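dumping these here so i dont lose them again. two proteins, back to back, each one seq then structure tokens. dont judge the mess
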Amino acid sequence: MEMNMLIVDDDRNFIDTLSDGLKLKNVEAQITVVNSAREAIDVLAKTIPSIIILDVQLPDMHGVEFMRTIKQTERLKNIPVIFISAKYTEPADRSEAMLAGGGSFFSKPVDIDELWAEVKYLLDKKN
């Protein structure tokens, strides 16, 4: 499966852990990492990733607001998005993320096997 993954998160430790975990699983994917919604918007202007892993708490915009923005954009609205968060983990937070169009929601720390299974599920569902 050829995949282009966009990770939007400002937590360097999480990004390193996720990248290492994906390498250990022999995931063949082009992974683009950005640290803010603004950077993500710049990337999305040039490319359409297979999937987005999106932190809820970004330095410049709430992840749910960012999600609503991309879901209103015709060429981006069908990209599956997995929300992740260390802080927003209450059922109401999860509901808000899912209502905005998220495919799923994980709390940090994330189990890499569960996350990868969800990535595969959402990509299979999309195709």
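---- next one ----
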Amino acid sequence: MTAPTHPAEPRTRARRRRDTEHRLAHDVDVWVASAAPEGTPYLVPLSFSWDGTALWVATPAESPTGRNLAATGAARLALGPTRDVTVIDGGVEVFELDALPREHGDRFAARAGFDPRGLAGPYRWFRITPRRILAWREVNELRGRELMRDGRWLD
């Protein structure tokens, strides 16, 4: 049995923001939690692209996630492992696949490794704009974990 390790010093809010922005720019997949209007939860991993202000995901329009996001206009996302997590609460906008510029779809396809525009069945784009972002690694980072509130980065 190994001895327990002690967490490193907590990161500053500025460092957590930089780490979060790096993760948004470089990670490929995100856990997407949604709920049906009557409350049934659904959790699924999806590939995403980050445009600097919002995350873009694509999923079949009639999948549980597609229906939930369109119906409620809200999602909770999680990036990273449980000991270095970023949780994002965001508002959702729905777009048909042909509603976005080709460059956007090309950027998503290059990043995600698949292109929803070429798949059978009706897919949609979902733009998730962060309203609240939390980030922490260990218990010593629980205090100060809120990085964004009401869509604005905190100082």
